[in-house]
# Entry
Amino acid sequence: MQQNFLDPQVLAAISGLDLVAKTVVQGFVNGLHRSPNFGFSQEFAEYQMYSPGDDLRHVDWNVFARTERMYLKRFKGETNTKVTVLLDLSKSMSFGKSPNKLNYSRYLVSSLVYLAVQQRDSAGLILFDDEVRQFIPPSSRVGHLQKVLHAVEKAEVGQHTNFAKPFQKFLEYIRQRGLVIVVSDFYADPETVIQTIAPLRWKKNEVVLFHILDRQELEPTITGPSTMIDLESGDAVEVTPEYLKTEYRTKINNHIEELRSKAQGAGMDYFLMPTDKPLDAGLREYLAARKGRM
Amino acid sequence: MGLLSPWWLLAGAVGAALPVWLHLLQQHKQDPVQFASTMLLERRTESTTYQRKLKYKLLMLLRLLLLLLIAFAFAQPFLSKPPAILNAGNTLNLIVVDNSFSMREGDRLTVAKTEANSALPMGATAQVWSMGSHVSFLSPVSKDRAELTGAINSIGPTDEKSSFAELARALRDASRSNGRPLKITFITDAQKTAMPPSFNDLVLETGSEMKIVDVGRKLPNYAIETVNAPKTLADLTKAKVNATVAAFNAPAAKKTVVLKLNGKTVGSKTVEVPENGRATVEFTGLEGPYGWLKGEVEIQDTDALVDDNRFYFTVEKADPRKVLLIDEQRSTRASLYLKAALESSAQSFFSVEEMSAAAAATANLSNYAFVVLNDPGVNIKGIEGTLRKYVEAGGAIWIAAGTQTGAMPTVPVAGFESNGSKLASRGTQRYFAPANVDPTFPSLRRTGRLEGVRFFQYVSMKAPEGSVVAAKLEDGSPLLIEKKMGEGKVLVFASTFDNVSNDLPVKPGFVPFVEQTADYLGRVEDRTNSYLVDSYLELRSDQKRASSVEVIGPKGDRALSLKEAASANTLRLVETGFYDVRRENGRQELIAVNVDRRESSLDPVTRENLKLWEDSGKGSAANAGSASGLDTPAPEPQGFWWWAAMLAFVTLLAESFLSARYLQVKA
# Structure
């Protein structure tokens, strides 16, 4: 039953992203049967090698006394990070039905932000198409969640996406290391996409890519020969059902695999999120991957 | 193949444009589909167009076919060729056996029937014909060998004359009506006299295969070719009978010729017949009772064909036939001239009996050969009805119109409209001369066109429609008019025979005129001594009148059925011998019938000519052309519009199925 509530089509019927996010995250957390107290206890998390410049207060001197090596003792409560979500508002994000890719992305972003706030992480938001449309710096203050969710709810698709252009500015906005989540349909050459996003990794940011695609983009079906109009450029291409069933699917799968492999090669996490995929399933994968890293 | 309503095809062509237009319109309609990005799409224009056209073309072709089939069905197509002709293997075998008179020679007919039996095909359809002057179908088209053999065995000899042209015509008709090729086996003695004058008459239809089995041989033969004998005589002792004996491919020989009357030999003579020549025998003086006598002239010896050694003829022995002259004026001049003219002829056997109109009312007119009315006037009215009945029953009346006749509005009995009596004036025109005399009319043949005859008085009358004007006067008035009434006839002479109204009685043409007219009206001229087999005997002249005629054949049986006796106009004479004919008016005749003597010549046609005939149906261009020039009956058109309608129905089902599939996929 719980799974039904997380169906994207059911979520689309719920008004208010805060309620959607709450429904998704709480339902998901309840479904885990585990304590959600990440960062709220003094539970030991890990040892980390001391490097010059680290705060000497965190050095475990007991270990140093036994081993004469300096380790920093880290607790979970101390792993709070700055989560910045980059949401693509290119016109291609308006493709799809019940929900379209933008709406699905809204649910996803809301859920991620909600989840971050629940973990006492600070969450920020950047909305972009060719330009950066809105930037909300990460914060964990009270009321910040509502601000972010409101911005997400009011976001509308813009024009064509030029990955290189806005990402150059992101480096200016994201000065502290943290978690950068990019939600987009990534309609660009995978090499270009990764090269554009890769500089975020230089500041030791963890980068997670959520690749949003509609089922019609993965497995398009048409009854007869049709002229396909590009939502962004308006270009028309005549295609046949046979082409879409064979060559196009091969190409889109190759595109996904190339993006995945290049992202992982560049140290990024990549998650393919078809809009018909239940959000909890996507978040489960994401958190499982995140847990492995922590 | 043809079309009874070809303009429907035009309507179909216009209608077929509709689906073409619709499908072209649909081809250009293409709703664009919005897609997130065409980055990964490649254009497939050619394959797109091809596939679309392929799918829609199938539907379009079905719709086009449906419309065209409906139009085609309404155009009512038909096949002009009979279906059987399409089946070339459906050959009809014809076995034709010649059973003409010449096949009586020796065992020709037996050999011919044996050959015919051996020519019967195994398991194939065949028909048996016999051929003389006419073709007879002796069996239906059958595969039953017993039936065909029975038909062959039933063939007997006839007295007919063979005619290859008649057979060829029948074969052409059979080929056209059957609509399939013929395979003919013709067994004959191939007489040369059976060949037509023109070889074109023998040409067979293209595709007919013919094989001629010649069972004949060249043999010498003698025959009585002709007999000349008097038709009717009062005194037989004066009669002369001339017979011609002919030798066909035969050497010179002495032949004994016998004359028989009613089966009794009355004369015998020996004659020397030259090689391939003819000799004449004359018998003088006959003996016999009154009435019709059956005469025969016969060669005593036997030869190849025995039956042509005998020639039949008839002679009638009778008292001179009476001619009734009804003359109110009691003028002796007319009867004098008529009597003198009739009795002066050696061949004549008429005697004139003069009577008044009142006396004639009680007389039995059927006893008279014909009746002469000399200047009939008012007094004749009393017996006019009797005279009319007499004529309509087959009698004849000769009217000489005088001044009394001219005083009446119509000519008695004949009913011609009279314009009164005309007299030549004493001025410049002193008489009327005859003009426009028809020398072929029986009364006027030896009259020298009545030249020099002067007419001083005549009755002007109007010739009614249907009458024959044999002579006119110079002013255009009819002089001699014939009108048929019922079985008989009326001859009207516009003047008299008294040498007052005209000077004809003292002119040289008078005697032949009277004599020929008497023969004509007394039906002496109609008779002949003998007929040939296959000729037709006229039974009645008035086709509208229902009268019964009785004919007894040579074997004593009735030659006519009851229906034929009441309605048949002619009788075909098929046997040699004597036919006894009893007409409706009680008159009896004896008819002698003989074989056409061309059958007596047993000279066969050369094998080369027979080969040419056999090859005439093998389809050379010249033969095909000549065959097509004949009167070819138009074949019956065989419609097949329902096949087109059935096909249209099937096409409609296929179109519905296909379009439903398209709609389903689209939905």
Q: What stands out?
A: DSSP finds eleven helices and ten strands in chain A.
